[in-house]
Design a protein that fits this description.
transmembrane, membrane, mainly alpha, single chain, globular, 241 residues, transmembrane helix
Length: 241
């Protein structure tokens, strides 16, 4: 079973991502006048961006991207750092500023996200070579903190409003709960990313850790995208709650 999941990791992951994205597109008319439309855009952005990461499978001696062997672009750490570690955090900070009601909460997220973005650019510039062969622990950790901040502020507003009685019908609740749990599962892995560092032309240091990492990501993604798919179908619009 473990070998099957690892052998089909990319197929399963991409299928889950596009399932959620296609579901969002199918129900786009339902959400087009709400902030949820931006979340649907985001699902498509992630599905396409993650698929582009697959280019590394063609960076091999007998494949058409063989000319990338030994270059900074041999692995996809640089792209993952851009679209997920930074891009996803900036999107969620934008999204929560759209759905939160309290101005103080919006300002807190705005300041935190802009500070994160500026710090990320500076940190990458100072660690330019490492940007192409590893994930940055400090950026993962700061990103997780911003996600937790967004979700917690949303939960506080729900607890203090009448929507607490019907929270389970809200798409934003599922978005918040799922992304909070997902990051809670994935964030601890950053402490061990030293075993996932890639040396150009050599490979990963610890294959056992890489396999375990893939399995954790796979089950976390399974939980996340199936829940999003369900929520897009089942939830009601915010103004109907």
């Amino acid at each position: 079973m473990s070998n099957f999941l690892l052998d089909n990791y990319h197929l399963i992951t991409y299928s889950l991502e596009f399932l959620a994205a296609v579901t969002g597109l199918f129900f786009y008319k339902k959400y087009k006048n709400t902030a949820a439309k931006y979340f649907i855009y985001f699902l498509w952005f992630i599905a396409i961006s993650d698929t582009l990461c697959y280019y590394t499978q063609y960076v091999k001696p007998d494949r058409f991207l063989s000319f990338l062997i030994g270059t900074k672009f041999e692995k996809n750490h640089w792209w993952s750092n851009l679209y997920w570690v930074i891009g996803a955090i900036m999107f969620f900070s934008f999204y929560y500023r759209k759905i939160l009601k309290t101005e103080l909460h919006k300002r807190m997220i705005k300041v935190a996200s802009y500070g994160f973005f500026a710090f990320s650019l500076i940190y990458i510039a100072l660690n330019w070579d490492a940007f192409f062969n590893q994930f940055f622990f400090v950026l993962d950790l700061l990103g997780a903190l911003i996600i937790f901040l967004c979700a917690v502020l949303y939960f506080i507003e729900i607890l203090l409003s009448e929507k607490i009685l019907v929270f389970y019908k809200s798409l934003n609740f599922y978005i918040s709960a799922v992304i909070f749990i997902w990051w809670l599962i994935i964030a601890p892995l950053t402490f061990y990313d030293v075993y996932y560092k890639y040396e150009i032309g050599v490979g990963v240091f610890d294959k056992a850790f890489v396999d375990l990492r893939f399995q954790i990501f796979l089950f976390a993604n399974l939980f996340m995208y199936l829940t999003y798919t369900f929520a897009l179908i089942w939830c009601k619009l915010e103004n109907e709650l």
